[in-house]
């Protein structure tokens, strides 16, 4: 396989470094799950034409929905990403130029499925696979590059570009969005989003443009940086029974939709964000847990001040919020006790005796519940 050969020449490091690189590659290459190809032909038919290895019918149907070629509105989304039952999907779609060898195809989508959240990494790789398919018109060449990355973490070619897995650090993907943009849009109301995330509530975000939904939703988990948990992110959802069933199995989540009909589904959210109208709504059933008080005002002011500081980068703002979050957990510490099994629980009576303002006590109680610190 020609593409893989180039690996030998790129690695002249000493044994220790080589072993370390090999370990990084091994860990990285275990993350990719599959590659697929969807085409739209000159008759307007959209078909799933090839995949490696095989995939399930339900995942195929889901990816056909996500790829934008089946959309009535003919809008082309060059790149979308999302998650379905712990499998991440990344879809790059291109229009076929007249000069291509693909004479009966007008558009196609390359789909990658993986275990990790890293849109920049998979966008870069799918773009290379698209160039290969445009040039050769055969999935075989794509598969060679896919296997090269799967086994060696690299694919190289003069004309189609090179890809190196280890150039894309997962933590950079966590920091790619802009917290400052969120705060500039919502100001003090950002505290509602912070509180909802702290309490592991269900957040639904709506905007008619998928790019806006993806940019906004991917940034939200950074508000609770101490968890570094992007598995709560479902950045591209349809109101489809199977997808919603998967979503409703999660305790807390961030779900992005381009269909305004989702606003009429209060069973799906505790907090609804209408991104197009810069509006945040707390659902009636979540109001009690989300009651705001002095502590929330303090955190909200800190978030706004930090985000409005022109000297501060987004990652510094995240750091400031993370430090304040850590402080909140120190409030809980005096009322926590370890069980015989070593699990930490909240002593509810001790918390009540402290006589915090009602909103603070309420928040700390619900936070303990979210962190599974309540004795059942």
UniProtKB/TrEMBL annotation:
Gene Ontology MF term list: guanyl-nucleotide exchange factor activity; small GTPase binding
Location(s) in or outside the cell: Late endosome
UniProt cross-references to Pfam families, sorted A to Z: SPA
Keywords of the record: Endosome, Guanine-nucleotide releasing factor
GO biological process, one term: regulation of early endosome to late endosome transport
Entry annotated with the keyword Cell cycle: no
GO cellular component: late endosome
PROSITE patterns per the UniProt record, alphabetical: DENN (PS50211)
UniProt record similarity statement: Belongs to the DENND10 family.
Protein name per the record: DENN domain containing 10
Organism in which the protein naturally occurs: Rattus norvegicus (Rat)
Phylogenetic placement of the source organism: Eukaryota, Metazoa, Chordata, Craniata, Vertebrata
Gene: Dennd10
């Amino acid at each position: 396989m020609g593409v893989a050969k180039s690996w030998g020449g790129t690695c002249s490091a000493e044994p220790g470094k080589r072993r370390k690189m090999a370990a990084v590659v091994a860990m990285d290459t275990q993350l990719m799950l599959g590659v697929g190809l969807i085409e739209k032909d000159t008759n307007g038919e959209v078909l799933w034409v090839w995949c490696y290895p095989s995939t399930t019918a339900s995942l195929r149907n889901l990816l056909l929905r996500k790829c934008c070629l089946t959309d009535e509105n003919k809008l082309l989304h060059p790149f979308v990403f999302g998650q379905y039952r712990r499998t991440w999907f990344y879809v790059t779609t291109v229009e076929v130029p007249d000069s291509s060898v693909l004479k009966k195809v007008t558009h196609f989508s390359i789909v990658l499925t993986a275990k990790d959240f890293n849109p920049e990494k998979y966008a870069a790789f799918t773009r290379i696979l698209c160039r290969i398919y445009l040039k050769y018109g055969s999935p075989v060449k794509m598969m060679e590059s896919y296997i090269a990355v799967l086994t060696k973490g690299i694919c190289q070619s003069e004309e189609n570009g090179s890809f190196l897995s280890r150039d894309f650090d997962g933590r950079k993907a966590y920091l790619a969005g802009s917290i400052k943009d969120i705060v500039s849009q919502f100001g003090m109301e950002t505290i509602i989003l912070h509180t909802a995330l702290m309490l592991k509530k269900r957040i639904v975000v709506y905007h008619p443009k998928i790019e806006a939904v993806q940019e906004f939703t991917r940034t939200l988990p950074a508000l609770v940086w101490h968890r570094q948990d992007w598995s709560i992110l479902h950045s591209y959802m349809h109101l489809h029974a199977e997808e919603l069933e998967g979503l409703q199995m999660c305790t807390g989540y961030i779900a992005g939709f381009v269909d305004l009909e989702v606003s009429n589904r209060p069973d799906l959210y505790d907090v609804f964000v209408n991104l197009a109208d810069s509006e945040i709504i707390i659902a009636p059933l979540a109001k009690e847990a989300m009651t705001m008080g002095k502590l929330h005002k303090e955190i909200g002011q800190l978030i706004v001040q930090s985000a409005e500081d022109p000297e501060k980068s987004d990652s510094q703002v995240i750091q400031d919020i993370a430090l304040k979050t850590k402080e909140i957990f120190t409030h809980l510490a005096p009322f926590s006790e370890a069980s015989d099994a070593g699990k930490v629980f909240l002593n509810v009576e001790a918390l009540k005796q402290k006589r915090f303002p009602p909103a603070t006590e309420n928040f700390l109680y619900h936070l303990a519940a979210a962190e599974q610190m309540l004795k059942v």
